[in-house]
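User: Peptide/nickel transport system substrate-binding protein. Structure?
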Amino acid sequence: MGPAALAQDEGRIVIADSRGNWGPPSPYLHDRRGPGYVLMTFVFDTLLWKDETGTLIPALARSWQADDTGITFRLDPDATWHDGKPVTAADEIFTFDYVREHPSRFVDLSAVGSVRAISPAEVRVDFARPFAPFLTNVAGTMPILPEHVFGGIDNPVRFTDPAAMTGSGPYRLKDYDPVQGGYLFEANADYYQGAPVVQEIAFVKMGTAAALAGLTSGAVDLMTKVPATERAVLKAAGLTVLSYQMNHPVRLQFNHRRPVLGDVRVRQAMAHLVDRPRLIETVYLGEADLWDAAGLDPLDATAPDPYAHDPAEAERLLRAAGWQRDSEGRWRTAAGDTLDLTMVALRHYDHVARMVAAHLEAAGIGVSVTLFDRGGLDAVFGRDAFDLAIVSFSTLGDPDVLRQTILGGRPDSDRYTANTALTRLLTDQASELDPAARADMVTRAGDLYAADLPSFFMISPRRVVASNDRVRPFVTPGGIGPGIPLILNKQMFLP
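Assistant: Predicted structure:
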């Protein structure tokens, strides 16, 4: 069914998605990237959730009480699964045990000691160690599973039966077309927080031209990715246009395990060779912001840029590292070797990678670019078979994301442990329950990271979305769930 036909139903909204097919909206089947998780949350609820202010609010847990050793959750007695069975304390306990056995990319349960029922409506989570991000990163992120559905499933990634979409969320999956990349969600009339205000939500894969035409004709209600060049046209047509910071900074990652990049002066020099303002204007048509090298925030416009485009400073740093130019102006390392560095990136970052490589090439540093799909790039990281990489993931959510960026097990994490003071701060902040003390630790860790520069946080793109007056999308401070920078918070469809 096309968008025009879908839009004929007043109880349905149509959302245009340029990619489509983010996998089945089930906790172990959805695509590993943020959109897959967000679509899953329409079907599955967590204990807590973020509202439009970024505040954690009740979901399956009606209330919660924290103390020095753990948290007690009081469950909503009205919550039911889509098949009509009640959501119970046993389901909550089962979920923690199941996710321990079958880990989720978005949830870390290593700090959880035990989970037990202290009454039919209360669940107690005791910590093995203090874990400051628990409410956001676990209670507000981990989808609760129905024990009667998943209890007999030994391999959830192969559990593709329709029952795998049995959640407790505000919507049921009515139709999913992986070939066309489309989804149709139907409101759960028995939802424990009240029936959704929109009866059906259709996600339709559309090219840019078709989505723009649908938006202006009324066949499409929300376009999740609008070219910056179309902003003025859509505003003139009376549509609401929203531009927001994705907090998904693009990093130039240095393979610091390679001797040629092990010298911090070399990494700092390369950072000074990247013309980031030009990158923003050329690749992103102005819809991006300079990012702070400390990792978590945009660069303060009133503060000096420690890695401003400065070829002269780059030259000074390289010479201090023992590098020399040959007769053709190309750099040779302190060992006298010529350079042919390999830069790897996802195909999505083709233009960014080639422009950064061109900046380095223009300064006399040889760089060749190779592009991959996600699986291929992860394999390259697994073999450590690269010199430079263009990588990106969200820095929204709890500041523990900085630890995950630097020390984490993701293929595109820095895996940088050479600075013991930095490692200690990153590790200790996760256990610090005093907000002010923890913020200070995170700030100091960011300063050390910016100086050592295992990766260079360069820029972060802005996203432009457009909608008509049937939809009121909002930006969730801190991101959806663990920190996903999309405007599809299911709260906008709830009473």
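The first strand starts at residue 12 and ends at 17. Residues 149 and 163 are 7 Å apart (CA to CA).
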